[in-house]
Amino acid sequence: MTLDELISEEVQKLSALKIYKNGLMQQLFPHEGEAVPKLRLSKYLKADDWKKRKVSDLLTRSTKPVDVEVEAAYREIGIRSHGKGIFHKGAVRGKSLGDKRVFWVEPSALVVNIVFAWEQAIAVTSKAEKGMIASHRFPMYKEKVGKCDVNFIKYFFLTKKGKELLGVASPGGAGRNKTLGQKSFESLEFFTPDCVEEQAEIARCLLSVDETIAIQTERIDALRSQRKGLMQHLFPVLKEAQE
């Protein structure tokens, strides 16, 4: 098998994983007009139907303003659309932030990009963001104790129904005119199980698939880097032969 053939095979595996995840999400969350998902974890088969709850019943807004020091270094976060996670911007001095309102990033918080929420620019923060900051365009929400699992909430908003609701809370035209109304977001209602552990198990199931996808993506990137290195090594030899 050639390197190109191996890369093609691994890309197909990645595509299959993404299709599997999409199908799994459709099974783990209720369809329109239903109060339970098609696929329910065995230990919860006899549990009560899921109930509609507002975002404000499950999460609480968290704000820790940064008292910016002009000579201190800060790193901001950004959020990719389509549920592709958080990225870290380069470090900048406080003076370059100007009058921008910024807040300390909280760990294990649901964070939304209000400009592209309608494109599912939503994620959960981790220890990797410790000490970083976010602008006012990235509101953060923490779990209300005993009410929800924050990763479950994230995955709900990555479903078709979740995207629809984010669009409802983001009125306006296309692009930057479709800004998420934070009060509207907090008023959104959707079905969740009473048991927080059931929410957590659903989230862990999907997180496991995401980890497998990440590993497969890294494998493909490594193979492509290897191919690039081989090509760069080959072409100078060809050039020398021509000379």
UniProtKB/TrEMBL annotation:
The keyword Signal does not apply. Residues 114-223 form the Type I restriction modification DNA specificity domain. Signal peptide: none annotated. GO terms for molecular function: DNA binding. One of its GO terms (biological process) is DNA restriction-modification system. Keywords: DNA-binding, Restriction system. The keyword Ion transport does not apply. It comes from the Bacteria. Pfam families: Methylase_S. Belongs to the type-I restriction system S methylase family. This is Type I restriction modification DNA specificity domain-containing protein. It comes from Achromobacter piechaudii ATCC 43553.
